[in-house]
Amino acid sequence: MLSCRSVHKVYATDRGPVDAVRGVDLEVAAGRYAALIGRSGSGKSSLMAMVGGLARPTSGTILVDGIDIWSLGDSAMARFRSRRIGYVFQFQSLLPTLRAIDNVALPALLDRSRSRGDVYPRALELLREVGLGDHHDAFPSEMSAGEQRRTVIARALINEPALLLADEPTADLDEQTEREILALLTGVNRDRSTTLVLVTHNLALAGAAEQVVHIADGAVVP
Ligand SMILES: Nc1ncnc2c1ncn2[C@@H]1O[C@H](COP(=O)(O)OP(=O)(O)OP(=O)(O)O)[C@@H](O)[C@H]1O
Ligand SMILES: [Mg+2]
């Protein structure tokens, strides 16, 4: 499902180049739950951004579902991201002027082949699955942080992605909510065979993963 080969990321900064990711080789099989752990600044988010098609690697190859994603043109990449990858990131936000259900429906409505009549019932079903059936017409400002995160998860699932990427999705939430969000993500992995790559600082959460990948100084620790 996911294959990283010799992936590097160098950021140009005023202080000179920063080697954030230094030759990562990584394989995650389809349907797996992999946890990425490592100290702050070790390069986890940089790697996730490249895997998710959001930041171009300085060098190396990333295959998702057998496709060399960084060889795609802009519009093919946008389509691939929207159809195949779901994102749940820490400070990712909902569109403030849209109700929960509209936020969830939006990525599917961008796909012209799908109609509102098909998308909205599915969006409502997903909101129910994440425990927000009663909040479907709430605006983000009317929801708690945990409710907003659950809405982000529902939104990430509307296009039935093959790969779900979660970068510290619970870092700013209390422990109970953290467990609930994690149960949601691992439930998606189990019930839909969606490949899940999760970045976490929480070793207990990482311990439940089928594959634990340690990152240190921009590389995978063998
Ligand atoms: N846009 C950027 N420009 C310059 N340097 C960056 C940029 N993003 C990250 N870095 C640097 O790259 C390194 C890796 O950062 P990254 O955010 O990938 O780490 P991380 O493992 O996700 O850390 P955390 O656990 O704190 O989220 C750090 O030294 C960071 O300062
Ligand atoms: Mg990070």
From TrEMBL:
Domain of life, source organism: Bacteria
User: Recorded GO terms, molecular function?
Assistant: ATP binding; ATP hydrolysis activity; transmembrane transporter activity
Among SUPFAM superfamilies, the record links this protein to:
P-loop containing nucleoside triphosphate hydrolases
Q: Which Pfam families match?
A: ABC_tran
Query: Keywords assigned by UniProt?
Result: ATP-binding, Nucleotide-binding, Transport
SMART domains in UniProt = AAA
Q: Which intervals hold domain ABC transporter?
A: 2-221
Name of the protein in question: Macrolide export ATP-binding/permease protein MacB
Its ancestry begins with: Bacteria, Pseudomonadati, Pseudomonadota, Alphaproteobacteria, Hyphomicrobiales
GN (gene name): macB
